[in-house]
Design brief:
Order of helices and strands: HEHEHEHEHEHEEHEHHEHH
Largest sheet: 5 strands, parallel
Distance between the termini: 10 Å
Strand order of the largest sheet: 7-6-5-8-9
Number of helices: 11
């Protein structure tokens, strides 16, 4: 049985095959590939895009979706996470999608259930389907991404999106530059910069990240306005450069990206959302479509 806990769970060839299937699903037609299958989503952290994207993907493939409201579940009454997993598993789901504030939870839960676990984000560790949809979006514009340069900008140290993208994008031959203030940078062997203006002229792609204020133990920047002065992706900064701009959402307007760039045709955020559905359709089909 195969799970999707990190991007490493899929080989390069498997990912290429996923992208081919995702393109088939881009017609947005309803299918019955997962008819009779039941998928449970259990999100211990807030989510708009990821949760709804998985649910739309599952329903578009014909599956039933049971969405667990954690605030009303027994976990809010003292039930352990593992007992919750065991009880859900007893209901016979075909897959469980989980998000949790603590890194490693999906990996641990995989030992307590008899169906594939799909990681919808665990702490600052991993967000595999986000990285996969990001790469899918990139390959729409750069069919062979080898040698293309991407600047990942923002709170990289606390970002599960950054972690998953660094692994995946470097595996596919992209050159990754990390751009952030010193306290937002992890220990890394990758090129780094503290000034987006130093690298803007050499990159093909910018991936802006949200500042993960909920993961900061202490206030690090004086204000988000101060942070934006140095790291906001603005129309003035980008100019007429031939790049694409990505962001996993939610966007802090005029902190991560300014209003003008969000309206710019080079900003592919809504395309990422659209690609998220078809990518997750391909993942669900791969993991449970033939079981």
């Amino acid at each position: 049985m195969q799970h999707l806990i990190t991007t490493r769970d899929f080989t390069t060839q498997e990912i290429k095959a996923l992208f081919e299937r995702a393109e088939v699903f881009s017609d947005e037609k309803q299918r019955d590939i997962l008819a009779g299958k039941m998928i449970i989503t259990i999100f211990f952290e807030n989510s708009t895009r990821t949760r709804s994207s998985f649910e739309v993907a599952a329903k578009r493939l014909g599956a039933q979706v049971v969405s667990l409201d954690v605030s009303r579940s027994s976990s809010s009454k003292g039930e352990t996470l593992f007992d919750t997993a065991a009880n859900l598993d007893a209901m016979g789901p075909d897959a469980i999608v989980v998000r949790h504030k603590n890194a490693g939870v999906p990996h641990i839960l995989a030992n307590y259930v008899h169906c594939p676990i799909l990681n919808g984000g665990d702490g600052s560790h991993a967000h595999p389907t986000q990285a996969l949809l990001d790469l899918l979006t990139i390959t729409r514009y750069f069919p062979d991404p080898t040698g293309k340069k991407i600047a990942i900008v923002g709170d990289i140290k606390n970002s599960r999106v950054a972690n998953s993208n660094i692994e995946l994008l470097t595996r596919f031959g992209l050159e990754v530059i990390l751009v952030a203030p010193p306290h937002f940078l992890p220990e890394t062997n990758l090129p780094t910069s503290h000034n987006i203006k130093e690298v803007i002229g050499e990159v093909d792609i910018i991936m802006s990240l949200r500042t993960q204020t909920e993961r900061h133990q202490n206030q690090i920047y004086g204000s988000l306005k101060d942070y934006a002065l140095d790291f906001c992706i603005t129309k003035e900064l980008v100019g007429e450069r031939d790049i694409i701009l990505l962001h996993p959402g939610p966007v802090h307007r005029n902190v991560d990206i300014d209003d003008a760039m969000l309206r710019d045709s080079r900003c592919k955020i809504l395309e990422q959302v659209k690609n998220g559905v078809i990518l997750r359709m391909a993942v669900l089909e791969k993991l449970i479509g033939h079981s």
